Amino acid sequence: MSSGANALGAGPTSAHAEIGLIDALRQGDEDAFGRLVDQYHTSLRRVARLYVSNRAVADEVVQDTWVGVIQGIWAFEGRSSLRTWIFRILINHAKTRAVREGRTVPFAGVGADDVGGPEAAVSPERFHPAVHPTEPGHWTSPPRDIGTSPEGRLLSREAGEQLQKAIDALPPNQRLVLTLRDIEGCSTEEVCNALGIRETNGRVLLHRARARVRAALELYMGRE
Amino acid sequence: MPCQELVELVTAYLDGALSPADRERFEAHWGTCPGCRTYLAQMQLVVGSLGQLGRREVGENGAERDRLLGLFRTRGLHARGPRERSVPLGIASEFAAPGDHISYFWESEPEFDAAAGFLAAGVERDEVCVLLGHGDANSRVLAGLERRGLPPDGLRRRDRLHTVSGQQPVDAVLREVGDRIRSAVDRGVAMVRVLGNLGWEHPGWPAEGDILRLEARVTDAVSNLPSVVMCAYDVRGLSGRSLLLGGLECHPLTLRRGALRRNEHHVPAEQFLETLALDAA
Question: Most C-beta atoms within 10 A of its C-beta, which of A94, A163, B131, B252?
Answer without folding.
Answer: A94
